[in-house]
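Lecture 7 notes: from sequence to structure.

We start with a single chain of 227 residues. Read the sequence below before looking at the structure.
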Amino acid sequence: MKPWIFLGFLVIVANFYSQTPDALLKSVVNKINLVNDYKAEVQVKASIPFIKVPIANATIYFKKKDKFKVESKGIAILPKQGLSDLTGFLGNTVAYSSVLGEEKTINGNPTQLVSVLPSDENSEIILAKVYISASDALIYRTVLTTKNSGTVSIDYEYNHNKQYGLPSKMTFNVDIKKFKMPKSVASDIRNNVQKKKYKDNEKGNIILIFTSYLVNKGISDEFFKAD
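Now the structure, written as tokens:
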């Protein structure tokens, strides 16, 4: 290998490993801030032990910083933890501290763990473990420990809208007994807790597949007000 090529390689490696947690998070937040609003179609597939949840289709709307709306004719289990809640949490950079952790390859993407601790003791999120790719400033996994929904692990995939940090697919792994479900599903779960006796920390999966994004087309504040 020629010396100058080797030197260039060392510079790239050094830049990767010299990333601070704040710099990694800032790169993600900068992408988040490119999105003023969006509309997307989403298909929701839920796999919960002993419960049959039909596939649902929904339309979701978001406007920064914290406006979020879901329209669906069926029962759509849409966890806000990985959608508007995480976006709002990371966007408020003065509300948390962060530290670097392990390096991990997730679905072929080299990532660096950043552990994020909120400074507000009333925060719903207690701890966020965020796996970030330094090369494209994207989150490929988060593990959120929350007050009311236990621990939620989320894997992200991207395609056409990765320039905005908007995923094409999200896979949630949730604690069934703690995770907040729609009332009809929660009722079935309570019945099955009595009949089947869910184990502590028993998991369920929720998969969201996003299509037809419309980004930064403008959504009025009035649209998000209750009907």
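The chain has one domain: 19-217. Keep this in mind for problem set 3.
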